[in-house]
Amino acid sequence: MNPAIQSLLLIQGVLVGLLTLAGLLVWIERRLLALWQDRLGPNRCGPFGILIFVADGIKMITKEDWIPPGADKPVFILAPAIIVITALLSFTIIPLAPGIAILDLNIGILFFLALSSMGIYSTVLGGWASNNKYSLLGGLRMSAQMFSYEVFMGLSLMGVVILSGSLNLREIVEAQSGMWFVLPQFAGFLIFMVAGLAETHRLPFDMPEAESELIAGFHTEYSSMKFGMFFVGEYVGLTVISAIIVTLFFGGWQGPFLPPFVWFALKTLFFILFFILLRAALPRPRFDQLLAWGWKFILPLALLNLVVTGAIVLARAG
Amino acid sequence: MNSRTNETDLQPRPEEAPQESRSLMREIKDKHGDNSFREQSTSDGIPTLWTGADKIADILRYLKHKARPRFPMLYDLTAVDERVRADANTLPDSDFTVVYHLLSLEPFREIRLKVPLKGDPPSIPSITRLWPTASWYEREVWDMFGIRFDGHPNLRRLLMPLTWKGHPLRKDHPARATEMGQFSMPEDRHIEEEEALRFKPEEWGMEQKSDEADFMFLNIGPQHPGTHGVIRFVLQLDGEEIIDVVPELGFHHRGAEKMGERQSWHTYIPYTDRVDYLSGVMNNLPYLMAVEKLAGITVPDRAKVIRIMLCELFRISNHLVWYGTYAQDVGQMSPVFYMFNDRERLLGIIEAICGARMHPNWFRIGGVAADLPNGWDRMVREFLDYFPSKIDEYDGMVMGNRILKVRTQGIGAYNTEEAIEWGVTGPSLRATGMGWDLRKVRPYGGYDQFEFEIPIAHKGDCYDRAIVRIEEMRQSLRIIRQCLDNMPDGPYKSDHPLTTPPIKDGTMHDIETLITHFLNVSWGPVIPAGEASGCVEGTKGLYSYYLISEKGTIPYRVRIRTSSFPHMQIIPFISRGHTVPDLLAIIGATDFVLADVDR
After folding, report:
1. B143: domain CATH number?
2. Cβ(B313)–Cβ(B539) under 8 Å?
């Protein structure tokens, strides 16, 4: 088959799969939360309520799309698009199975870090452009969170890069054929997971939204499909972070018996469910506490991890 | 009928108390001149003194700082419109009377001071400098009665809209919309109302900017997921740091006191349910205790124990709602569902006994509405066996959580002196280390027969306030188990002629009983003239009803003193310097009900 057509099909498949998954995740999350909280959750639309995301989608598209007077209109419209675009683009570099990835990029990790930084502009700009004080506070919290958590998100991945000697995600996965990097890089894994949660601003790091404090934070003023895009962006972001964790620390597609893609999907789903469980269980720290914790505890830990990993690798090589 | 003697049956209090209050009165008279006072006897036995407006500030200062015992808590400050009172000739000449109610907690003593005022608008010196908590009370009295408090820093309406004409609790102000003429909102009135809503920080006592920063003003409420009802907090922010908070009340004001002045003694009971709408029958009790004191009714034992059991069930139910929303306010999503599920079990029991869930309207003058249904004991026992392990489980889930601890420990703290100064009672007072509980200090309604402990904590912050409430649930379970094991036999309602609904046994046999029954049902009972207040240790603090009867079928004045009101007033004091999320933690830990604040 023509490689161009092949990659177009792949893009198409990933896009449809990812957006459907984002929709399904809404249902999965609501059903799981309901299960854990002794409730029923959405169970009316389709078998087990699985079509709730279709109903939600129709509802959101047909709702009034309102832009508040005084809002910075172009930025207000642009903001929700950014989060969806960056989240979807991040997924292009993830190897789904041997030889199946949209982009086999030799600077994969850098590309991912760049996009995740870009994605945060969405919340910051959305909070700023809404001309609403709650949104502004949410946007400010997000930018503070970004400044501190970007730093060690990058640092936490450097251990993996040192071990595998590559920034290419496919090569990183292949380098884990002997041992998953979660074992030598356990600290790196924990730090990256925390930073990833902070990037996707889900509980317990949902300070920019904080519904009991800031109503809905940065997207307070958003309605209709613009709100829907923040929603989709959040779930795609959650999937991306889970997929990256799996790729970098849990051997990506590798595993016995089952086909590689199934392994990749199962592992990713596991982390998604874990994040949903975290949301059900934990309260929300105050955002200055979160920042202090980041700078005083996680950053030194990330640096230490980097130094120790480097030293060990050097000692072995020498 | 002598109400005094019966009252002592209802409320066992130390023998020397009247003696001491007499010596206190003598002491006050010695200090301030004998002829400037007049004593009034009341049905609740609280020493009540009349004095002049020129002296009141001095006397209050003396009582607060020098008297033995000292009275450090301004418990209540209210007023009475005396102008159409039928028994006015027995009292000092007065158009409006301002009533101060002070408490000494250790030892527990009460005193009531009254000041007669004439003229329109009447005026009296403000005591906000003596007690900061007087500020809102004085504003409320200004709002409701049009009494000026000279020297008050910000004498604005508190509960009614700023554009309201008249003062609602004056007797010449209509009590129903149908008495007020047709409502219309022409263009100019509309503009005027809109203009009145314009926010000017200076009017709220806040600066627009300081030398370093321009402040941001943020409305939390009236519609906000974190406020648990309609209230507006105006925040003066520097970044996320709170410079000042000003709560705006009145969104939930329904005129519960005014309604009391048009309902019969009996038909007012359902309105009390709705004052603190999470505590149900707990609200009936102080009102009925006051009525029973006026009428001289002794409640039979079975009714007492039923009342206590239901009150404690409601205490747990209230604390469960508080517990869940508290966790919710610091961002924990799940606990509220577990706690509402448990509350559902409780409401099931309450429904089985009372026929209703949140507003059972179950207590009656002289007893309760009906006897306990068959099988009530099984339902209660099942809950008692089920619930203790759940509290332990929630302890680990919520109180043991590290994030919750860093969010609430050291946040919004006050000490015992500050709590008393601001009129804080109940669990919020006990969290500062003072083991003061009215059920122990002056056991009412039969609490002296029960074994339970008073949980306390020491730091007075949000976390400690939570600890006290959780332990209170365990103690309530103890009390309920004792009720279950020792439920006395006998009537569930007193055979006194003024009980409601009246006893019907003889009505089909003799005409006299039929007539009495007919009158007491159609008009309602005529309660003897007098004044009394009933006070209980409610779920949130002290609740009391201060009733004045002029020997009629309706009260002349109903004053509802709720604990949420002072607890709300202390929030600015404990929030300054914290951040927005801390304010939500403080609100979450406070346990207030907006209907209880506004009434």
Report:
1. 3.30.460.80
2. no
